[in-house]
Structure formats: C-alpha cells, structure tokens
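Hello forum,

I keep getting stuck at the same step: I have a sequence, I want structure tokens, and every attempt I make locally crashes halfway through. Rather than fight my setup again tonight, could one of you with a working pipeline run this one for me? It's a single chain of 248 residues.
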Amino acid sequence: MLPRPTSGTPEAPAGARGFAVVDVEATGRSPWRHRVVEIAVVLLDAGLRPEGEFATLLDPLGPVGPTHVHRIRQADVEGAPRFREIAPRLLELLSGRVLVGHHVSCDHGFLDREFARIGVPLPPVPLLCTMRLAREHLPPAPGYGLAACVEAAGLGWYPAHTALGDARVTAELLRHCLGAPSCPPEDWAVPLREAAGVPWPRLGRARSRPSGDAVPLVRREAPYGPWLPGSQAPAVVLTRCGAMGSTA
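Reply #2:
Ran it on my machine without issues. Output:
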C-alpha cells in the first residue's frame, strides 16, 4: 500500500493528470534484441495519491531469459497475453502522464521498441527518473540502484525483480524525493505541464482472441522482502484473470 502524500508535497499545476510509474522485466538487456516479459504500471494523480495498478506477465514469443534474476519460468507465461493485446490498455494508462521509473530510460527504451514492433510510435513523453532524484535528494549512498535507494530512504523491504514490486516501491521513492525540502517544485511541476499537452495515439481494444477466448492477464505477486543472492526465492503467486480488466 502506498503511503499518503507527505506534508512537504508541493501543489500540482492545474489540469495535470499525474504520473505513471512503470517497471518492466525483460528477456535480456537490449530493447532491440530482447522482449518485455512482465510489465507493471502504478498510477499516481498529480498530488501523488494512488489511483490504480496494472500488471501482467507477457508471452515474449520465445525464451523468458534470465530466470535466476526475474524468477519467471517458461511455464508462467503460457497463455499470458502478447504485448499487442495489452498495448491499447497501456496507451490509455500512460496518456497525459509523466512516465516515471528507476533508470527510466531503460523502461522507456523497452516500451518504445515494443510499441515500434506493432507500428505505433510513442510520443515524446516527459520522463522522471527516481535514480536522478535520489542522487539529488537522498543521503549519499554506496550505490544508486533501486535497492540501495530504497534502503537510504528508509522505505523497507520489497519483492525485488517483480515488475509490480519494483513499480510500487519506485512510486514510494518518487513521493519521498519530491517531498524532500531540497526538491524544488519545478522538478515535478514542469514535467506535469508538458505531459498534459502530449498527443497520444489510440488503438482498438483487443477484447478477445481469434478463438473467441477473452484476453487474459497474469498477475504476479510476491511477499515483501529482499531476494538476496544465493537465497531461496520466496513463493510467487500467479493470478490468472480471464479478461482484460481495469486498474485495481
């Protein structure tokens, strides 16, 4: 559960829609050669209040890649949607919002390539990187990976390398940094204003497959806590939904 906005959170510009905090797990490191195998979006309004979540595993149409990192097995993505099937919903979620991520250029790069593969160019969406914000508004840390920043901010443990776990804690980190006394309002007010004017493409919803079956979502949940090298992976629960749902 995301915490309430801090008392130091500045006012958002009028008409701003908010933030889309995104995390992807992929079959490798290259957006050009590898595919997204899991995606999560945490929506925050312009006042940093939570509005909803979207998460699903994806069928990458090939090997899932480094299972030792993201803990996704080949069997987990059987029957999961393909990117094209969730693309219309993603466009709706991202439209009018600032795209946020930890090392956001990486998440944006994978999204940009996945949309390009289906012939949809992403618009010049404003980006906000919690890694950059952490460097400026957190105490000095030995590193600025997500786990190190979460520890420096005192936000507690989280299920690392699950898209939803990473997106949720990145949303908390965003709120922590933007509420810091050292953070000027321009750090978030300017991107919000820019996002409101970006024209977004739209796609028709893929409500069913050629077989007539509903497009599924496969949501992965894991208990909060770090996945330390060499430790046994925590139990992961897969929830298979029989239809393309809204955020919840």
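Confidence is low (pLDDT under 50) at residues 1-8, 226-230. If your local run keeps crashing, start a new thread with the error log.
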